[in-house]
Automatic annotation (TrEMBL):
Stated name of the protein: Large ribosomal subunit protein bL32
GO molecular function, one term: structural constituent of ribosome
Keyword Ribosomal protein in annotation: yes
GO cellular component, one term: large ribosomal subunit
Compositional bias ranges of the Basic residues kind: 1-18
Region of interest called Disordered, as start-end residue ranges on this chain: 1-29
Keyword terms of this UniProt record: Ribonucleoprotein, Ribosomal protein
Entry keyword Heme: no
UniProt-listed GO biological process terms: translation
Length: 58
């Protein structure tokens, strides 16, 4: 069975984990109301997606 001969250093482990951090979501403004929303999602403010009203809001 393969077993490591030496312990990995902290810097080596950190280099491997450097890409594991969470990234901020990319937000776009709604073309109708201007509210920031994730792309490919119905606007939570006005309920419009791809130019069509999907959710009726007051």
């Amino acid at each position: 069975m393969a077993v490591p001969k030496r312990k990995h250093s902290n810097s080596r482990s950190g280099k491997r984990r450097s890409h594991d951090g969470l990234k901020a979501k990319g937000l776009q403004s709604c073309p109708r109301c201007g509210t920031a929303k994730p792309s490919h999602v119905v606007c939570p403010n006005c309920g419009v997606y791809m130019g069509r009203t999907i959710v009726e809001t007051e």
